[in-house]
Write a structure and sequence with these properties.
- It is a single chain.
- This protein is an alpha+beta fold.
- 28% of the residues lie in helices and 49% in strands.
- The model has no long low-confidence stretch (mean pLDDT 95).
- The longest helix has 28 residues.
- Strand 6 and strand 7 form a beta hairpin.
- The chain has a seven-stranded antiparallel sheet with strand order 1-7-6-5-4-3-2, covered by helices on one side.
- It is globular, with a radius of gyration of 15 Å.
- It has a single domain, classed as START domain (Alpha-D-Glucose-1,6-Bisphosphate, Chain A, domain 4), CATH 3.30.530.20.
- It contains three helices and seven strands.
- The N and C termini lie far apart (58 Å).
């Protein structure tokens, strides 16, 4: 039997935007495709996007030349401008690489939003998935901050 790596990963960011705008950036697939990719060489494509409790997103990601990583996100609880709880599986070539439970929490902090993302990860391929998840989520959240910084610059 293969071993499973379990880990709890916590990410926090101070987002320079109102809480409703941050929530909308998660709720809107087109916005997620803008800030959700971890690098300029990566892509994120939603084949199905159903952001509601019980809804399911199906997406592909990876390099722009070959978005061969497939994901499914099921939304378990959505409290607008407050919390999103979802489960996710990631597969490549029909092989499930990991499963996770993620809780996204948003809190108003003056004119900004405090974001906390807690992911409970079960990796079926060991440390590589943990490292990839850390790198990818950190890069995506950094892009989310930049997304709102750019919006603020354009509105001046």
């Amino acid at each position: 039997m293969d071993s499973i790596l379990h880990d709890t990963l916590v990410f926090t960011r101070q987002i320079p935007a109102h809480i409703d705008a941050v929530f909308a950036a998660y709720a809107t697939p087109n916005a997620r495709m803008l800030w959700g990719v971890p690098s300029d060489t990566a892509t994120l494509i939603y084949d199905v996007a159903d952001f509601r409790e019980g809804g399911l997103d199906r997406f592909r990601c990876g390099s722009k030349a070959d978005p061969n990583i497939h994901g499914e996100t099921r939304y378990l609880q959505i409290i607008p401008s407050s919390r999103v709880v979802s489960s996710e599986t990631i597969t490549v070539a029909g092989k499930c690489l990991c499963a996770s439970l993620t809780t996204l929490e948003l809190q108003t902090n003056g004119q900004t939003t405090m974001l906390r993302n807690t992911t409970q990860l079960a990796s079926f391929i060991g440390e590589d998935m943990r490292k990839g998840h850390l790198q990818g989520t950190n890069a995506s959240l950094d892009n989310l901050v930049k997304y709102f910084e750019e919006q603020a610059r354009q509105s001046r």
